[in-house]
Write a sequence for this structure.
């Protein structure tokens, strides 16, 4: 959600109008005879929305966008960073409180295969459903503070590429197709695709200066 102050979600009923409802009433007299009568009533119609109870969602926030194009496949992620406190300058970890999202887009119709023409930032705002009165939202002003653009060409398999210093933690996330070095996104990392596991036996080979490295593999099972 990207909120720095996130309360418990609230379900709210909002009146959307009225409608006429036909009601059948039955009654029984003291002799046991049942009579029915049909009456029409005007009743209110409601819709239920979820109020996120969020404040200052992205005020003075620092976001990092990582976009990778591999053929017709676009992989992207947005990560919010701390701007104060002891974690200042570090990526946020809790997706329930901060803006941490990722996804993949496949350009099946080849609409976005032209050369890169320009880079810009835009932030859209819109009213939320529970705004039954006019609410004055502040304009979101964006600034691009840093920009890196890479083009990865074919490289020799034996050509070394230094991506981290001694003691830094390297995380290769094959689910989000992203790599972090010391907790921060790093790109580009290698010239091949992130490995995907297939049913059966899989072999993963790590090549490099790994004599004193500590390697941890985490496997998240998925239903086939």
């Amino acid at each position: 959600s990207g909120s720095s102050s996130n309360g418990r979600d609230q379900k709210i009923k909002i009146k959307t109008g009225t409608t006429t409802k036909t009601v059948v009433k039955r009654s029984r007299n003291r002799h046991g005879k049942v009579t029915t009568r049909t009456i029409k009533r005007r009743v209110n119609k409601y819709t239920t929305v979820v109020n996120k109870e969020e404040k200052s969602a992205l005020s003075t926030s620092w976001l990092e966008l990582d976009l990778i194009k591999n053929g017709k496949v676009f992989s992207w992620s947005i990560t919010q960073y701390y701007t104060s406190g002891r974690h200042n300058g570090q990526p946020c970890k809790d997706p329930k409180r901060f803006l941490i999202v990722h996804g993949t887009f496949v350009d099946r119709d080849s609409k976005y295969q032209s050369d890169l023409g320009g880079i810009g930032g835009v932030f859209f705002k819109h009213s939320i459903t529970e705004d039954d009165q006019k609410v004055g939202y502040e304009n979101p002003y964006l600034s691009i503070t840093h920009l890196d653009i890479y083009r990865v060409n074919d490289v020799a398999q034996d050509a070394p590429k230094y991506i981290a210093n001694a003691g830094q933690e390297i995380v290769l996330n094959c689910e989000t197709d992203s790599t972090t070095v010391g907790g921060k996104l790093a790109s580009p990392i290698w010239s091949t695709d992130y490995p995907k596991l297939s049913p059966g036996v899989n072999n993963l080979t790590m090549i490099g200066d790994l004599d004193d490295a500590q390697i941890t593999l985490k496997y998240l099972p998925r239903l086939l």
